[in-house]
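Z., the sequence and structure:
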Amino acid sequence: MNKTELIDSLSEETAFSKKDVTRVLESLTRIIERTLKKGEKVSLTGFGTFVLSHRPARKGINPATKQKISIPAVNVPKFKAGKQLREFVRSQSSLSK
């Protein structure tokens, strides 16, 4: 499902206009980005948690030239699914087998 499909589904389920759903979804995204940038986490009980993770600097190899390179440290966003979401996905995957 892409963003447009998500907006369509939310609009149908909530009876809000696509324009309103788009504004809410874009606001949610910006709020999560700002919160992670501050180093804080965003928890949606039952759904999951967005958190910032630090990946330290390391040595790597350029696959094209086989030359050793230094890969700088970087912060990356991570998502950990909540218990309710994990259980739902597990129950659905066992039904499809």
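The chain has two domains: 1-40, 41-97. The two ends are 22 Å apart (CA to CA).

Let me know what you think.
H.
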